[in-house]
Design a protein that fits this description.
The protein is mainly beta. It has two helices and six strands; from the N terminus they run E-E-H-E-E-E-H-E. It is elongated and about 60 Å long.
Length: 97
């Protein structure tokens, strides 16, 4: 059995343009950890939803991305201030004495 830990990797700062793109403020030095994913877990530590990524790229000190099925500014605005999480699995270690 393993334990699941969620780590906050970025925050969605708001919509970017009118076609559903979002602007992201990364909290990690290695933004490739975000850019190389096929989907992001978006929400908070209590509740989150997986969103498939259509495309993402670096834009200055930020990242801009287009998520599948987020097709207009209003839908993108609904994700404002949500966090992008990364899930890591840690095996439980049993110490026998």
């Amino acid at each position: 059995m393993s334990e699941i830990e969620k780590f906050i990797m970025a925050r969605i700062s708001g919509p970017y343009g009118v076609k559903g793109w979002i602007k992201i403020q990364p909290f990690t030095v290695d933004v490739n950890q975000l850019l190389n994913k096929k989907e992001w877990l978006i929400g908070d530590e209590e509740s989150s939803i997986s969103y498939p990524i259509e495309t993402s790229k670096i834009h200055g000190n930020s990242i801009i991305a287009k998520l599948i099925n987020i097709d207009d500014r209003d839908a993108a605005f609904g994700l404002k201030n949500k966090t992008i999480l990364m899930v890591l699995f840690f095996p439980k270690v049993h110490v026998y004495t």
